[in-house]
Amino acid sequence: MTQRPERRGIHVDQSDLLCKKGCGYYGNAAWQGLCSKCWREEYQRVRQKQIQDDWALAEKLQREEEAAYASSHGPQTQSQSHPQASAPPQQQQQQQQPGHGSLGPFSKFEEKKTNEKTRKVTTVKKFFSPSSRTASKKENQEGRTPSPSTSRRASFDTDQVSRDFVDFLKTLQKPGREIHKQCRAFIVNMSSKKQDLGADELSECVQDFYQGMSDRLMSHFKGSSESVEQVMDQVEKYIMTRLYKSVFCPETTDDEKKDLATQNRIRALHWVTIQMLCVSFDEEIPEVSENVVRAITDIIEMDSKRVPQDKLGCITRCSKHIFSAIGINKSEPASADDFLPALIYIVLKANPPRLQSNIQYITRFCNPSRLMTGEDGYYFTNLCCAAAFIEKLDAQSLNLSPEEFELYMSGQASPRLGGSGGDWSGGGADTATTTTTATPTPTNPVLAQLNHNLELLSGLGSRQEAVAEAARSLQADLLSWTESVQREVNDILEKYPLEVAPCTVSAIDANNTDDNNLPLPLTPQVFAG
Fold first, then answer.
1. Which is nearest to 356 in space by CA: 390, 320, 379?
2. Which end of the chain is more exposed for a tag (fewer CB within 10 A), N or C?
3. What are the tens digits of pLDDT across the range 393-448?
4. Angle ∠(75,76,77) on CA atoms, nearest 5
């Protein structure tokens, strides 16, 4: 018997969910454990360093090109280029000789790059990076037209959100008009840039817009954070509904590949049970089962939403149903150690569509204040932890031996509940080779229904054979009955043959008509008037 490894279990401290820099906000696995604020600061630092490195590389390439140009010409050219190389770029352009026309455009390019760096409009990284998608990819995008029903639904949702946004801004009067103008200008600007920017750059643009809009609203409402959050929620809903098709699961990322890998991973873990994850609720209780079904429905519904805050709302509702299910079995409040295993179990049962794409979409384009604090941020952080745990789930996490884990993953064996405390009857190679014994009654209502259906199917063959035999017997009886009836009719006809006497028919006005058999003629009667 293979010795089971020591159980590691699923344990998460509150500190594990917070930002690694200790700012007090919730962190995110997609941001390397940082909150959105610290991640943006780190991203800006790395980006600025990349700009400096690219700028140094550009200067190095310029010096090499000047040296190559000088070496390719005679000593006269070298005598003119040496003092020019040590002079500043402005003096180099003034000292440029008319015969050196090939250096003129490069100096102008250098000056243009300097101005772009000063204004922080673009970077050398963007300059050297190819266009997001070439004409061939654009042709593929044009060829993939959505179905008419999907287009009508998306158009209806967009129009409805636009009307709601305009109605909301009417209550703000003059600031509302300015907000609407800025939002429309931002959407037009993003629509023109979406082909040339990557997912991180699109996220940076949206987050910069959120930050700038929030700062202006904070000064307008004089520090009223509640009013600012209310307006920012409407702004986010309007903007992301209009940009959803462009920024959700973009082709410049590997989000779709991660979605397929996660779905295949969850399908391979279909055999994981509640006892293996030490989940603190019992699905046999009707109230618990109802909350589990609602939680699964909410987490699946997340993919149908277009706005990050609506997707977060689905995660929050799912989490609250999980807490309700745990509360039915436990008298004390549920802890993080109770919630995370249950959330992992719900994700395994639901296998939400495009889970990684939805997580990345929320991470990139949600209002950062929602992810850093509050219950939405807490539940979303736990969902990210659950997805990461599923990717790294191993035998020790489920209190199984490596042999058992491989057998279950390959489908060669299936765990059977036996007793309590997380022990499974049968194990390792012995599980696959043991003879069939009486299977214990599973505590899971789904497994109980499955066993009941298997029992019904096992007797279906014999019952079908019995029905077929009865049909053949009935057919034989019908044939014999037909023959017996035919014989009886023939016997009666032979015994009592039918004799038909000839009948003579005479005309009514013939002379031999028997008048006695005719009725008396009608006599007219006169009634007194």
1. 390
2. C
3. 988 888 889 999 998 888 888 875 433 333 444 333 343 333 333 444 445 667 77
4. 90
